[in-house]
């Protein structure tokens, strides 16, 4: 439904390194970088998924209060891999991988805070 989403980050280099590592297990890869002269404000990096959805970060004054973004994962193993990669990239635990049956019986998610405190989630809705 959503084609792309853009989030302003306070430390572009730190956030870019975090998202490169954290989103890799979910099938995202850094697609393009735009220098400040080409972006509306500050450097930008776009991360693309094979389904065509894009997630962008841009240098500037980080969004406050922090927001919640959930990325769909193809499997529970991908959720687990996202969590490990995001923690290794400097993310802070905000909910280890596991079932969240209060959402629905197959809701399997993990939550990590990014460098600006945004709640980044990977979620799989499939039964395994």
UniProtKB/TrEMBL annotation:
<protein>
    <submittedName>
        <fullName>VOC family protein</fullName>
    </submittedName>
</protein>
<dbReference type="InterPro" id="IPR029068">
    <property type="entry name" value="Glyas_Bleomycin-R_OHBP_Dase"/>
</dbReference>
<dbReference type="InterPro" id="IPR004360">
    <property type="entry name" value="Glyas_Fos-R_dOase_dom"/>
</dbReference>
<dbReference type="Pfam" id="PF00903">
    <property type="entry name" value="Glyoxalase"/>
</dbReference>
<dbReference type="InterPro" id="IPR037523">
    <property type="entry name" value="VOC_core"/>
</dbReference>
<feature type="domain" description="VOC">
    <location>
        <begin position="1"/>
        <end position="125"/>
    </location>
</feature>
